[in-house]
Specification:
Keywords: Isomerase. The chain is an alpha/beta fold. The chain has one domain (3-280): Divalent-metal-dependent TIM barrel enzymes (TIM Barrel). The protein has helices spanning 16-25, 61-74, 91-103, 122-143, 160-167, 181-184, 192-199, 240-249, 266-280, and strands at 3-7, 30-36, 55-57, 78-83, 108-110, 146-150, 175-179, 203-208, 210-218, 224-231, 255-258. The chain has an 8-stranded parallel β-barrel, surrounded by 5 helices. Strands 9-10 form a two-stranded antiparallel sheet. The radius of gyration is 18 Å and the shape is globular.
């Protein structure tokens, strides 16, 4: 049975203490903590990626690990993932995050696949990442923690096929994948069910959000220019019923982790999205 969690990137105005209480009250089952390398204090604005109060810092994570685990468990939630932004070659920091994950009884951490920019050679980036992941796999096996890469626009694994090509060299106990249909609607879309079948045991976690495409402008020749943007969960292109049916069909039992970047106020979003997801399960 799939469980539902929240990725704290979307709760920037709440502290960790506030967020776990709210999530437990709304009957979420888990929390995916956002982890940055260094926390910038006193940022003026509060947004998903800046001044987010619900973000943990890798610098102080070890000393806070027991506390964070304590407040999470006290309200009956599980820590389902530590979502870092570490690159696959930051071995020392990856090891530190895995040590902390072990203390927190969290089974996995996210690391970032490298970005692809025209001018970079995809083939050399691929080989370099593969070599780095060999080391990451060794660290992961030492701690019994899984390192997850995310299907994400702009990186070298935007699709299930591209990701499978990279991770199929590794043991799925230690290297896994975050499936993200909202990202894949911007880049990397493939038939949901086919991608899930292809990924098999590597499919370890799912991010839940939605996207749509908008006409940005039209030039003098009548050519339309489109761009992707975030959408509310029920209003985007991803048919979440179809995604969840696919996940059921492949026997996925992990988390559906809410990462809804739409414009709904946080309280309302947390409330409405879980109701919607439960209706689809």
């Amino acid at each position: 049975k799939m469980k539902i969690s929240v990725f704290t990137v979307i709760t920037p105005e709440f502290t960790p203490e506030e967020v776990v209480k709210r999530l437990a009250h709304l009957r979420y089952e888990g929390v995916e903590w956002r982890v940055v390398t260094v926390l910038k204090e006193n940022e003026q604005e509060t947004s998903f990626w800046k001044g987010n109060k619900c973000t943990l810092s890798l610098e102080t994570l070890e000393e806070k690990a027991d506390y964070i685990r304590g407040i999470t468990e006290a309200v009956g939630l599980e820590i389902c993932n530590l979502a870092t932004y570490l690159k696959p070659n930051e071995f020392g920091k990856i090891e530190k995050a895995m040590q902390v994950a072990k203390i927190m009884e969290c089974p996995q951490i996210r690391i970032n696949a490298p970005s692809y920019e025209p001018g970079n050679s995809y083939n050399s980036l691929f080989q370099e990442t593969r070599k780095n992941l060999e080391k990451v796999e060794k660290i992961a096996s030492k701690y019994g923690i899984k390192a997850l890469l995310e299907l994400h626009m702009g990186n070298i694994i935007p699709s299930a096929s591209a990701a499978h090509r990279l991770i199929s060299f590794f043991d799925p106990r230690y290297i896994g994948l975050i499936y993200d249909p909202g990202n894949m609607m911007q880049e990397g879309y493939e038939n949901w069910h086919m991608g899930m079948e292809l990924l098999g045991e590597y499919l370890a976690h799912v991010h839940v959000k939605n996207s749509k495409w908008m006409i940005e402008k039209k030039n003098k020749k009548g050519v339309f220019f489109w761009r992707p943007t975030w959408a509310r969960l029920k209003e985007g292109i991803v048919d979440w019923k179809e995604v969840i049916n696919g996940l059921k069909a492949v026997g996925y039992k992990g988390y559906l982790s809410l990462e809804d970047f739409s414009d709904i106020p946080t309280e309302k979003k947390l409330n409405e999205d879980i109701e919607y997801l439960k209706s689809l399960k």
